[in-house]
User: Fold this.
Amino acid sequence: MERFEYANPTTVKDATELLGATWADAQVLAGGTDLISLMKDYVVSPKRVVNIKGIAELGKITPGTAGTQIGATVSLDDLTSNRAVRAAYPSLVTAALGITSPQIRNMGTVGGDLCQRPRCWYFRQGYGLLAMKDGKSLVPNGENLYHAIFGGGPAYFVSPSSLGPALIALGAQIKISSPTATRTVGADKFFVNPQSADMREVDLKPNEIVTAIVIPPGVTKNATYEVRQKEALDWPLATASVALKMTGTKIASARVVLGHVAPTPWVAAGAEKWLAGKSIDEATAEAAGAAAVEGAKPLSQNEYKVQLAKVAVKRALLAAAGKAV
Amino acid sequence: MPNYSWPPMDKRRIMGQRISRLDGPVKASGRAKYNSDLNPQGLLHATLLTCPHAHAKIKSIDTKPAEQMKGVAAVRVISKEGTEIQWAGTEVVAIAAETEAIAIDAARAIKVEYEILPHLVHEHDLAAAGTRARASGETIEGDPDKAFADAEVTSEGEYGIPVITHCCLEPHGSIVQWSGDKVEAWPSTQNVSGFPGSLAQPLSIPATQIHVHMDYMGGGFGSKFTADRWDVEAAQLSKAAGGRPVKMFLDRATELTIAGVRPSAYAKIKTAAKKDGTFTGWQSQTWASGGFAGGGGLNATLFPYVYTKVPNKRINHTAVSINAGTQRAWRAPAHPQISFLCCSALEDLAAKLEMSSLDFFLKNADLTIRPDVYRAQLTKAAEMIEWQKNWHQRGDKTAGPIKRGLGIGVNTWGGLGHASACRTTINADGSVAVDLGTQDLGTATRTMVAMVAAETFGLGIGQIKIGLGDSRFPVSGASGGSTTIGGVTVSTRKAAVNALGKIFDLLAPIMNVPADQLEAVDGRIQQKGNPSKSMTWLQACAKLGTQTISETGENVPRDAPKEGLINQGASGVQMADVSVDIETGVVKINRIVAVQDCGLVVNPKTAESQVFGACIMSCCAALTEERVMDQTLGRVMNADMEFYKLAGIADIGEILVHMDITPEHDKKGIIGLGEPPAIGGVAAIANAVANAIGVRVPMVPLTPKRVLGALSNRRMA
Assistant:
């Protein structure tokens, strides 16, 4: 990796002031499970690395009537072992437990899961977010087994965030700080489908950091289902997170969000609409799965992911309803 | 002529026992230092600048920016200007520096200009290979045309298994120090005794001046037989840097790109049978690639694998040259691929006959090389996997998305011991040393040598000091092809018997017992069968006074079979029980059973361990493992441990191993075990999936994409 300056602030203000006007100026270090390998592979080479693990306030989980606030540097392991989180947000816990191995959950953080960079192998080999060579994307005619089936073009990578789909389904808000201001953005608006190689895949400016996630109370049933080839040390092939507000046995409103299928977590609006007013059984879940993948645009090697996304939705719904998957 | 034969099965005290490997505790606790762990004083760190293009000519190289960098000790151009490079990852420049970081920075500072040339990196589409494909001619036996015309049932299918890499946990490389006229080398090698010879020529110094050390090594699988370019460069860099030691181990991406692959194998196969299941005809058109040289190793004589007596065959093979890192031996070269192709095609034929593949095999066992052995092993394996209870016709008809199935794969291998020499030393204080220039790849060679020596000397296993991993010890062969156990056990046995003979000669007049009437048991030397006429080992050795006994023993492969100590010709059967989720295409292994014969089994525990490892490798190759190359870039996309997917502990199911230990097999002598259990597992798993879901998935690894693809083709049909 290139040489860099290392900063170890203890307040959010200091941390954001140490960041720069461009992404090349500085990068945020939390668990380091992604940043270090990006730097070793020269995919990113910041002049300064700002460690935010020393900022005590970012490391806490705070329950409250307005919802549960989860600090950005809370480790995935702390998240999954928190009793209140386990009771209220099983979809988030399932998604977090899918981030393997235990060593990664020990080091990796909630904020890091949201801000990590795509695993697209063209990106990792230096062809940028849009995987361009000679003015053309390498993906459509290349090795696109794991790439996007929704929202593709010009970017075809899939959002690697495991927590993102669950947080969107749960209606979470993301708190962000810059040296001069704080703002809050809905988790559904936080992820960005980049239209150019110099854009970022999340709604952050180079001098901003995620400080916390706030999940509102009130959702009654939620679940995540991940289709995985391997049990551990592997990325899911497709996931679905659902959250259902119920009126009696009927769904009042549903959120259905797919993971690993698009450059952002992908809100399956068709499925959400279809589910309103229904009660959950195998047939409803199956039909919701079919509605969720309408309009999918698979690439040359990844049509199978359409089926996986469909099944993930079905199984997540059945799991949310407490039915055997 | 001394009697070297093994003690009878029921008289062995140590051989045949379940003994844990001697270096287990030091390895598990991290105290065992692999050569890649060493950091001797004055060490320089080396790295390679490799070519990013699959096919290119080097127009110019400017190494000055690296040479001028502070901390850089030596820079050497490996591929000179004008060199035509045939695969990405080819070594261009080697750099040694004070730290690894400086070496990498220096490599990045070097400017190389390439003329980029057209490349081909995929071989699965034979039609697209054009002139890169070279057919090796047709082999015909019997009358295949008539066999297929007369056949009551025929089956046709296409099958494929991709290139996989060796993915050694300890990457290739070495530490080398070339100072004055001497070279000290600490490589990761499967060939300690042969390493000096392969390093000597490129360095232009006598092999006698090269000294190799290696206590432990972290995986080779057939890819570490000789000194490689990077080892040679480590030596040259050391010399250029005034004789400081240089450490050059490949990084993970380079390891997976250029340090060896197992060739692919693709086939169109047609089989013929009578209605009663008699296998009558075979026709195969195969193609494969082992890299730029073509290769692939699918020799016509190996089809249709163990069914050597099938009367009618037509066999064609085409080797395809691609611009990719070159093939190296991989645990049982060509056999896993051929077992997969053949066992899959025959499973499909059996399904067409509506026979269980077990019945098909039993019906046709006489057409195989070892009918009785396979019959007995299949019966045992069937019992272990509960075949009668769990087998069903192709396609699990039970409700729900999870479908379960069973499959079979078979293996055969040689495994005759290689040439090996051993020296045993008995000292007057009773200490015993056994030294030989072999290596322990993690297979428990050290433990086997100690067991044979302890058995022979009548001592405890901890009383023997084992020396290996040093090229100054008596020469022993490379560890490949399942040849080590046979080689080292014979040379150790002979050296120990010879040394014991010297002790007996010394003691005969003292004990007043003829030397040929003495024996060594339980730490004593005694008159045969008479403990009352004995002395302890320590008392006996004390009689040496100022002398030391040093004797050698040798295994000569040519003579070995008639001596009866070792043999060749191992057989085994593997069966798999899988569950497939037909909605997601995800395959889970419930159970794998392996029944394996390897003649006389020196240590059932470590033998089972070998088979476990082989079954796990089979799970990887069957379900997850595949080199992915991009045609536009000409590069490996998954040269890492993230997308080069290896099975984890949760992915391998339950593995049951049965070593086929019988008096009959025992009489054959010791046979190597490294290769055979690594052969049949992929076939067993692929066949179990076909049995579960009712349709053949033509290509492994059996990813969700491929399983769903096979299912949807069936739905369309």
Chain A has a mean pLDDT of 97.
